[in-house]
Design goal:
Strand content: under 5%
CATH architecture: Orthogonal Bundle
Oligomer: single chain
Largest sheet: none
CATH class: Mainly Alpha
Number of helices: 10
Low-confidence stretches: none
CATH superfamily: ABC transporter involved in vitamin B12 uptake, BtuC
């Protein structure tokens, strides 16, 4: 039950946040924050503090660092430097401990089957905070994602929206990394959202579809992992790629069919 509850919450949040990650072209940020944040968990374990607390501190700090430095520099370079810094700190923290190897594996690749009961409430609280933040910022965030020039003309400050969005991604990272891992968080955030954007151009429909695809991916991955005893991470990644591939194939077929239909009409009229 803990597995189903935690994975479902993670999937919904990842699908919603992932929609804006894809819309804003921030896939590198979504890749960097979860991987760099595991250093916070390593530091927390070294100090005997909560893993989620360490993840939260490093995720938010990394997001603020990317936002502040990215204001006057290239966003991709700043993101890479923030990732390098956090990974370097993670290596330092790990070198001071000899009892952290099993937890490292779970933070990188996830431990959905091993979710403890005391992790459900913090995960739910962080998930609700993420969804409330997105609901509050939805209109300006969507406008700056689709039409940044129009948003700026209406008085919306792109830098402020970027900072708010990065903090939302950091909160999502904090709640999802202990469940699905740093690597799988990236997969669960990008693949369902990319699939949804391929299937529809409506923002509202795409966001809901992204969350639904993420939810279905996690549920199916849990079942397949249980039946085969293979890592759940493999199924999350493989299913994400498969769904996106099917969506792209369907989109290509649909566009070809429309083009052929228009071609026949032109021939008939001539």
């Amino acid at each position: 039950m803990n597995t189903w509850i935690a994975a479902s919450m993670v999937a919904v949040v990842a699908g919603v946040i992932g929609f804006f990650v894809v819309m804003r072209g921030s896939a590198f940020v979504a890749h960097a924050l979860p991987q760099g944040a595991f250093a916070g968990a390593a530091g927390a374990a070294l100090l005997g503090a909560s893993t989620i607390l360490g993840l939260g501190v490093f995720s938010v700090a990394g997001a603020l660092l990317i936002g502040l430095l990215g204001k006057k520099g290239r966003h991709d370079v700043v993101t890479a430097l923030a990732l390098v810094l956090m990974l370097g700190l993670g290596a330092l923290f790990l070198s001071m401990s000899v009892e952290y190897a099993p937890e490292i594996f779970s933070l990188l690749f996830g431990e959905v089957i091993g979710v403890a009961s005391n992790e459900i409430l913090p995960t739910a609280a962080l998930g609700i905070c993420c969804l409330l933040a997105i609901a509050f910022l939805y209109r300006p965030l969507l406008l700056t994602s689709l039409l940044p020039d129009v948003g700026e003309a209406r008085g919306i400050r792109p830098y402020r929206m970027e900072m708010c969005f990065l903090v939302a991604v950091a909160l999502a990272t904090t709640m999802t990394v202990p469940v699905v891992g740093a690597f799988l968080m990236f997969s669960l955030m990008i693949a369902p959202a990319g699939t949804a954007r391929t299937l529809t151009s409506s923002p509202h429909v795409a966001m809901g579809l992204s969350a639904a695809i993420a939810l279905f991916t996690v549920w199916l991955a849990i079942v397949m992992s249980y039946e085969t005893n293979w890592p759940i991470g493999f199924f999350v990644g493989a299913l994400g790629v498969a769904f996106y591939g099917v969506a792209r194939a369907f989109d290509t077929w649909q566009h070809r069919r429309i083009a052929e239909s228009l071609g026949r009409k032109v021939v008939a009229q001539s």
